[in-house]
Design goal:
The chain contains three helices and eight strands. By secondary structure, the chain is an alpha+beta fold.
Length: 141
């Protein structure tokens, strides 16, 4: 059976932006340097890397549509929950119940970043940006 020629993948795109966020404690907020990233080869997700002093960065991956939904109202499942804060910020609750970190960030700045990812990979075209060859090659072994 002849194989169809593979459709070429669009060129990969990478987007990163530094963003200040705060870790909220019971009585105080601590600023954390972070960077938000997006790679078109993983088109549904964005990453938030928390750069901690003297340690490796801690990276969380979030669904980009969930981030936009979380700016409108509470959303999330499992270890990732988002909700708008009364002060116009966005709260990210990351981790398992009882061990959850609460992070506050600028809602508009993060939403702007997510909108920029949709300029790179429009909604509905995500599957065309995924390189399925490594998975298919591993299944053929």
């Amino acid at each position: 059976m002849p194989q169809r020629p593979a459709t070429p993948l669009p060129s990969p795109h990478l987007l990163t932006r530094p963003m200040a966020m705060e870790l909220l404690g019971p009585d105080t907020a601590v600023r954390i340097d972070t960077s938000v990233g997006y790679h078109s080869r993983d088109p549904h997700a964005l990453s938030i890397a928390f750069h901690l002093l003297g340690e490796e960065s801690v990276v969380w991956r979030l669904d980009r549509e969930m981030v936009l939904a979380g700016s409108l109202g509470p959303t999330g499942e499992g270890e990732v929950h988002l909700e708008p804060a009364p002060d116009g910020k966005l709260l990210l609750r990351l981790g398992a119940a009882g061990h959850r970190a609460v992070i506050r960030c600028d809602q508009e700045e993060l939403a702007r970043f997510v909108r920029d990812t949709f300029l790179l990979v429009p909604q509905g075209t995500e599957e065309r940006h995924i390189d399925w060859r490594p998975l298919l090659d591993s299944l053929r072994r």
